[in-house]
Amino acid sequence: MREAKLIIADSEHDSNMYYATGCLVPDDFIYLEINSKKIVYIDDMEFGRVRNEALVDKVINYSKYSPGIDRDTFGRILIRILSDNGIEKVYVPGNFKMKYAKVLLDNGIRTEVVEPFFKERISKSKEEVEKISEVQRINESAFKKAITVIKKSKIRKDRKLIYNGNVLTSEFIRIILQKEFVANNCFCDYSIIVSCADDTVDPHEAGKGALIAGESIIMDVVPKSSSNRYYSDMTRTIVKGKASPEIKRIYNAVAEAQMIALSEIKSGIRADHIHKRIQKFFDSAGFKTGMKKGKMQGFFHSTGHGVGLDVHELPRINLNYQKELETGNVVTVEPGLYYPGIGGVRIEDMVVVTEHGCKNLTHFPKYLEI
Amino acid sequence: MREAKLIIADSEHDSNMYYATGCLVPDDFIYLEINSKKIVYIDDMEFGRVRNEALVDKVINYSKYSPGIDRDTFGRILIRILSDNGIEKVYVPGNFKMKYAKVLLDNGIRTEVVEPFFKERISKSKEEVEKISEVQRINESAFKKAITVIKKSKIRKDRKLIYNGNVLTSEFIRIILQKEFVANNCFCDYSIIVSCADDTVDPHEAGKGALIAGESIIMDVVPKSSSNRYYSDMTRTIVKGKASPEIKRIYNAVAEAQMIALSEIKSGIRADHIHKRIQKFFDSAGFKTGMKKGKMQGFFHSTGHGVGLDVHELPRINLNYQKELETGNVVTVEPGLYYPGIGGVRIEDMVVVTEHGCKNLTHFPKYLEI
């Protein structure tokens, strides 16, 4: 049976499509790989550009199949393209769109989901690690600017921070971060977390309003490079002024948990074992995890995840990922503890897995009080 | 047969999921709508936050179905959720992921693709039009800053533009635009087009390097609001210094084509008829469209597309969209002509369709030479 790999997606947001073609197209187009021969089918509008830019063997203008066809209707020509190439079975990524799959199924094309679609994406090449590090350097310079502003701010009587005469807010810090990103050809297409006090106990709460002295401030930021297309991911937790003894205790436990995870990571170790080890550490240090008054508290997210062309990709460091880490994996290490009434703490670095350990790609210092 | 609407997606990038839930979650979660009752199923980590934020009837923590389950594996619990609710058939959006569809099909759940999934998204409410306009105002203030810089630049002997002693580039203009966006809570997750000279003949070429006097410069920019989540879309074509007679002729034709389209648009008119009208206008004015030396030239993209939570959404103004425009549609009107050796011209406004015409949401002036 003649088989092919098939992707239909845009390449500005779908990272498999970008990985396959190396060029940016904002609307869905077709990628077909037959015996390692890579073919792109694209419309009139993009044809000239994509023929020059795409890192594939052949670029075909699909208007020859049906003039006037567009991206909303090209399911119809898909079958002709497959039959021209004698394809009876296709392998598609997990996020392959059902509207296209339906056309395949209705026409008797065997369709199999393959995940991960490009296995090689899980272990990064030296060049990929460099690209991620490049974005991380920019992330760190943005953090530095943001934290400097918080450092320079004054504490008002009501514990709000004042900077240049104005109340310092999550929103303002977000703008400082983003200005540094856009000046360096990066952007953020996920919410930028700058949360404070009660907001920090929800790990993905973006945060809003005034920053408060003595409360934990979580900054978790995932810039993406417009040019090299890779993400970086870093989290720091700080307190302006004096932190409470409870926050300090949590911070130290999270920092220690991160050290443990970092010391365990190496090629060949099972990801779920690292996660269990961190759960155990928090448990035995007296940091309980569970539902309380309808809200989770303690340590209730994964220890880490892969970072690359997607910000959350394989491998995972959690209970369900019962596989070994491999040399070249780039993963976050981000334990966290969250207790309503006290606050949340998360510290996140990115590392690349090596044969005997890991190399930390994050150089930003860790401290609580500023 | 008991039926439900089903979405499984993240809501930072999937606009149906955002439309359904009104809250931002960076990873896939489950939305189920049974007889207008809206239920979200979500993991431990997001539960507390999403329960507060989601505009739905009920938020359920799916860890009760299987502790430790995560987003990579929750296809497994999907069937339990559906069976608990007695669901035998689901309606899913066109971009429903095949990896989840496979679980449904393997378990005998009838699965039907519905496009558009939320019909009401095609015609915008007054509030939605206001949100889009808000983003458009920010887009215009960014264009103003960028064009001012081009205006202030000097023309060097080699026709490159000099600003503050440096060669003015696409990249620099992009940063000016983005700084204005991030200062106003917007971001760009699609390539920002600032192309010049030969690059302008490929409509989606982002552009790079020095801007050149006397050549057409196309700026096509689609900021998205981080807060209200809507896009705007605008294109202007300018020439620094003197434009050639050929560019002027093209510019005037495109401007006239846009006027024609704007004057035709109203509730009840067929979208494809408007597109054909513009094709005909260009043809009879002597602007030929077709393949030349393996490259399309003339007018070879659609006249417009819907704008909303997605930058390209229904309705379309092209040959394949053989439906009537309706009151409340927000569409772009963006004819363009592209001739290698001369250059490209595109002018794009956004309008809201009304009963007897349309209201232009774009207030930015149109001029060629600056």
Descriptive report:
Two copies of one chain form a homodimer. Chain A is an alpha+beta fold. Chain A folds into two domains: 3-121, Creatinase/prolidase N-terminal domain (Creatine Amidinohydrolase, Chain A, domain 1, 3-Layer(aba) Sandwich), CATH 3.40.350; 126-360, Creatine Amidinohydrolase (Alpha-Beta Complex). Helices cover 30% and strands 25% of the residues of chain A. Chain A contains eight helices and 23 strands. In chain A, the strands form eight sheets. A six-stranded mixed sheet of chain A has the order 4-3-2-1-5-6, sandwiched between helices. In chain A, strand 7 (154-155) and strand 8 (161-163) form a beta hairpin. Chain A is elongated and about 75 Å long. At the A-B interface, helix 2, helix 4 and helix 6 of A face helix 2, helix 4 and helix 6 of B.
The CATH homologous superfamily name of the largest domain in chain A equals Creatinase/methionine aminopeptidase superfamily
Q: Structural class of chain A, please?
A: alpha+beta
Uncertain spans of chain A: none
Helix amount of chain A: 25-40%
TL;DR?
With 370 residues, chain A is α+β, with helices and mostly antiparallel strands. Chain A has 8 helices and 23 strands.
Helices and strands in order, then pairings?
Two copies of one chain form a homodimer.
Chain A: E1 3-9, H1 15-21, E2 29-34, E3 37-42, H2 44-53, E4 58-61, H3 75-84, E5 89-92, H4 98-106, E6 110-113, H5 126-152, E7 154-155, E8 161-163, E9 166-167, H6 170-183, E10 186-187, E11 193-196, E12 216-221, E13 224-225, E14 234-239, H7 245-264, H8 271-284, E15 290-292, E16 295-297, E17 304-306, E18 313-317, E19 330-333, E20 336-339, E21 343-346, E22 349-353, E23 358-360
Parallel strand pairs in A: 1-5, 3-4, 5-6
Antiparallel strand pairs in A: 1-2, 2-3, 7-8, 8-9, 10-13, 11-12, 12-14, 15-16, 17-18, 19-22, 20-21, 22-23
Helix pairs in contact in A: 3-4, 5-6, 7-8
